[in-house]
Each structure stands twice: as structure tokens, then as C-alpha cells.
Design a protein that fits this description.
about 425 residues; mainly beta; 6-stranded mixed beta sheet; 5-stranded antiparallel beta sheet
Length: about 425
């Protein structure tokens, strides 16, 4: 998930302020200077396109594919200010709840029973049903709003910044246990959980080393090297069985790593039957690659650099330049990686799990999901003549999305109650709101 720079107030063209996948990586949301959009990944299709009065949306958090979203407005948004988290019901096409804050919200995470709001020095945990604050966590400075929340009903895990730089804090709600791990010496830059919450990966501001840990014990399982040069990380993403890990950076490259077998076996056992069918190809023995290692790895006991594991596959964004923000995930198709960029491009590429370590991924498709700028006329203006309305068949259909909304409502009666209630507001006195 990537939050980008604030919009230019004078800009007329669509600008991307945020890009992020949903929990199972089947969709991705885009916050723009005029609203937000949602795209289905496979097959690629625009599912939602909402133009909102008031200004831009700089953060969009989905709840799988149901009708509820958490939105944070851009600084220029007069309707949804950045110190409020808005619960948006897309079936009713209006906000049905909000969380008012004393300072700007840096991020938000959703699961079916919790809303987690990230401030620069705090993480606030709310019940989703009534938006009552039930926990406050003090953290080190966290301007990027780093936080990960496991969506699995059987393993509610929250991971956020700790009380010191480079430290990660793990909240195991079901076990009522908390612990912290010193993951890096530099400040954290990225972190992510597996879909079942069993594994955690972190990266620091240097962006050279990724550390994979057991989220139940904090034990480090694997140390992976993205590169030798400092780079800002944009995204970390596991596949559904935790056998593969992908990362993207502002250098315009995406790396794919093979995780140790114990990670994949432990996580695969926790994947539900419905998820297992979707991810079966990624857990098969034929799909096990091997990471690269330095030819001087025998010096590992003396110099950690030589003993590092490097990616077994790499993808370079076409015409990549520096400071290109992107997010990545593993597609439903076999051995396929998806990369979404802040320039409005969706790339898919293929990797060969049986190929030589250090291979280059093969580019498959490239799709532009942003409106193209209007062509200039001979007189130098960009105004085109009025055209006849082509009718409703040219509008984006919401029928598939409505089906997904019903699927989301089946997650629990609380969702149905919230979606069907009138607006719920939470004030600073944390008074409990009642549905109408």
C-alpha cells in the first residue's frame, strides 16, 4: 500500500494519491484527487468509480470485496478532512460512520470486527460494530502509517511500530499476549503479514535487508537481501501459502524470493479450503524455486553480506525511472506477478520457478487504468465538441459488486447492521453510538 504526495490544487487531470490491494489481493483501490476507484485484478475490470464532492481521497482501505470502505480525505478535502476516518457504504453511496481524531490519520486497517487507525505516534483499535475505542498503543514516529492487521477470523494479529526505531510490536488478541522485536537498527519502512497471520516480514529505511519472522514467537526465520544499495521500499507481499515473497522499491524493480519450506508448510496448514484451491499451484513441489547466493557465501560466518539470500526472479518496470512508486502481489494465475504503479499502469509478468536463480521475469501484459488526457485541437485548446450521450450501457456496472457486497455481509451480522444503519459518529468522549 502506497500513499503518495498531496494533490496539486490547480491540476485538472486525474492524479493518483493512493494505491493498495485488498486483503486477498483480488482487487486494488485507487484514491484520486476527485474520489476513488476499485479494480478487479483477474479478469481486469473497473468495479467502482466514485467521484466525490469536496476533494481528493488519499487513503482507501477495502474489506475484501464487500460494500464497506474506510476513507481518509486529502488535506484539500472540505467534506472528508484528514483528521477523520470515514466508513463508506458503497451500496448506499454515503458515509455511515466516522471516527474523529485530534490529529491527521496516517493510515487505517480493517477486519470484520476491528478498525485500526494509525496516527504518527499512536495506533488506535476500535470495535467495528459501534466504533468504540478499545485500545491505544504508543509508538515511535510513524509518518508512513505502517501497520498490518491479519484478516483471518481464527488468528487476529496486529503488527505495528514499537516504542523505539527499528522495533516492531506484535499484538496477539486471541492469546492476549504482546511482545516486541528489534527487527532493524534503522527506522522501519515497510511491514506485512501473511494472509493467515503466521509470518511477518519487515524492511528498514535502508531497504537492503528483509527479515521474515514467526509472528507468534518473534523468532527470525529468514534474512533476504533486496540489493546492495539503499532504496525506499514501496510494498511487501506474500503469496497465499507463504511460500513466496515479493517486494517493490522506488528503483523500479520488483524482486521475488523463495521462503524456507517450514514457512510454507506451517502457513499452508492454516489456509482455509477455499483459499487452498486458489493457491494450490503456488504450494506444489514443482513451484519451489531457490534464491540466489553469493559465490563467496563460504565467508558467511565472517561477513553477513556474502551469506545473504538474494531474489530468484526480478522484474524491471518498462522504462522505469527513479521515484516510481508501485505495489505488487501474486496473481491467481500460475507463476504470475502483478505490479501496479502510481503512474496508472498495471503490469503482469511471469517467472519460472524451475529456472536459474537471478532470472528476469517475462513481461506479459500492461494496462493503463487512468483516463488518457484529451488531445489538443489545432487551435491549441483541449476543449472538444459536445458529443451525444451514448446511454446507460456505457456506465460501469455495479451488479458484480453488489454480489460481492452480499458475500461481505455474510461475514457477520454486525456488517449487515452497520451497512443498514443511519450515520454513526464517534466523538472525542468515545460515547457509544446506537443504530437507528
Amino acid at each position: 500500500m502506497t500513499a503518495l504526495a498531496p494533490p496539486d490544487a490547480a491540476a485538472k487531470e486525474t492524479q493518483i494519491l493512493y494505491i493498495g490491494f485488498n486483503q486477498d489481493q483480488s482487487c486494488f483501490a485507487v484514491g484520486t484527487n476527485s474520489g476513488f476507484k476499485v479494480f478487479n485484478c483477474s479478469p481486469f475490470k473497473e468495479q467502482v468509480n466514485r467521484e466525490l464532492d469536496g476533494g481528493g481521497i488519499r487513503y482507501v482501505e477495502m474489506l475484501f470485496q464487500c460494500n464497506l470502505f474506510a476513507l481518509i480525505g486529502a488535506p484539500n478535502n472540505g467534506r472528508f478532512p484528514p483528521n477523520k476516518v470515514i466508513i463508506w457504504d458503497d451500496v448506499k453511496r454515503k458515509d455511515v460512520g466516522d471516527i474523529s481524531l485530534r490529529q491527521e490519520a496516517k493510515g487505517v486497517r480493517l477486519r470484520r470486527d476491528k478498525v485500526v487507525v494509525v496516527l504518527e505516534y499512536k495506533v488506535l483499535v476500535y470495535n467495528f460494530k459501534d466504533l468504540e475505542c478499545v485500545m491505544e498503543i504508543d509508538t515511535v514516529s510513524n509518518p508512513k502509517g505502517l501497520c498490518a492487521l491479519c484478516p483471518s477470523p481464527s488468528n487476529p494479529v496486529l503488527v505495528c511500530c514499537g516504542s523505539h526505531r527499528g522495533m516492531v510490536r506484535v499484538e496477539l488478541f486471541q492469546l492476549q499476549r504482546t511482545f516486541s522485536v528489534q527487527a532493524h537498527t534503522s527506522p522501519l519502512n515497510s511491514l506485512a503479514l501473511t494472509l493467515d497471520g503466521s509470518r511477518l516480514v519487515t524492511a528498514s529505511e535502508k531497504g537492503t535487508i528483509l527479515r521474515v519472522m514467526d509472528s507468534l514467537t518473534g523468532r527470525m526465520l529468514q534474512e533476504l537481501r533486496r540489493g546492495a544499495h539503499v532504496a525506499e521500499m514501496c510494498c511487501l507481499a506474500f503469496n497465499h501459502t507463504s511460500s513466496l515473497l515479493a517486494c517493490s522499491s522506488v528503483r523500479g524493480t520488483v524482486h521475488v524470493f523463495q521462503l524456507v519450506e517450514s514457512c510454507a508448510q506451517d502457513s499452508a496448514a492454516a489456509v482455509s479450503t477455499s483459499d487452498a484451491a486458489k493457491a494450490q499451484h503456488q504450494a506444489s513441489p514443482a513451484n519451489q524455486g531457490s534464491n540466489s547466493r553469493s559465490s563467496l557465501s563460504f565467508f558467511g560466518g565472517l561477513v553477513n553480506y556474502f551469506n545473504s539470500e538474494w531474489s530468484f526472479a526480478r522484474f524491471r518496470l518498462p522504462g522505469a525511472e527513479t521515484n516510481v512508486h508501485s505495489i505488487c502481489s501474486f496473481a491467481a494465475e500460475r507463476n504470475t506477478l502483478m505490479v501496479v504503479t502510481a503512474t496508472g499502469q498495471l503490469h503482469t509478468c511471469l517467472f519460472n520457478p524451475e529456472g536459474a536463480p537471478g532470472q528476469e521475469c517475462e513481461a506479459a501484459t500492461s494496462i493503463s487504468f487512468l483516463p488518457q488526457p484529451k488531445p489538443a485541437l489545432d487551435d491549441g485548446s483541449d476543449k472538444l465538441p459536445d458529443i451525444e450521450d451514448v446511454g446507460a450501457e456505457n456506465e460501469v456496472s455495479t451488479e458484480p459488486y453488489a454480489g460481492n457486497a452480499r458475500q461481505g455481509l455474510e461475514m457477520g451480522g454486525w456488517v449487515r447492521a452497520l451497512a443498514c444503519s443511519d450515520k454513526i459518529a464517534l466523538r472525542e468522549n468515545a460515547e457509544r453510538a446506537l443504530p437507528a
